[in-house]
Specification:
Layout: H1 2-28, E1 45-50, H2 55-71, E2 80-85, H3 98-112, E3 117-122, H4 123-128, E4 140-143, H5 146-155, E5 160-162
Parallel strand pairs: 1-2, 1-5, 2-3, 3-4
Helix pairs in contact: 2-3
Length: 163
């Protein structure tokens, strides 16, 4: 009987010793660690649907569009990124608000220079907000209707939709 208790004690001690490192690992990373996958992305055609009045969300879209263009090796022939502006985003691009959004608008404009990134604004929505094309920065192209343009880009030109 004493031998069985000694054997049990040894097995238990061995188990505790062997699993003590695992316990610490479970506390630090209970589900393990992520693994990186190296993927080479081919240039694509993307459209961003920009409707936010939140300047941080606008910054996020500008950052993402810029990064994607870099990931696509700044390929102006096979990549295209269109940012469709409508709704509450329109005032960012109004000339009268330049002083308030100068840094953002300079950045947005710079994304269009020598790249495949462009900004298109809903003319109907701008008109509802009392803006005419002459009231909007020159790097923006006015389109008849944002919803129709988003559908057209997806269905007729093969753009992927991003929000």
């Amino acid at each position: 009987m004493k031998t069985i208790k000694v054997v049990r004690f040894l097995i238990y001690s061995l188990f505790v010793f062997c699993t003590s490192g695992m316990a610490d690992e479970k506390l630090d990373a209970p589900l393990g660690h992520a693994k990186s996958i190296d993927i080479q992305y081919k240039p694509q055609k993307l459209l961003y649907d920009l409707t936010t009045a939140n300047s941080k969300e606008l910054d996020n879209i500008l950052d993402r569009a810029s990064l994607l263009f870099k990931i696509y090796d700044s390929d102006i022939f096979d990549s295209s990124i269109v940012i469709v502006i409508h709704g509450e985003s329109i005032p960012f691009f109004a000339i009268e608000n330049y002083g308030k959004y100068q840094e953002r608008m300079q950045r947005a404009n710079s994304l269009t220079v020598g790249s495949a990134i462009e900004f298109r604004m809903c003319k109907m929505a701008a008109k509802v907000m009392k803006y005419e094309p002459k009231d909007i920065h020159g790097f923006v192209k006015m389109i008849p209707m944002a919803d129709a343009e988003i559908v057209r880009l997806q269905k007729e030109e093969g753009y992927a939709y991003m929000r």
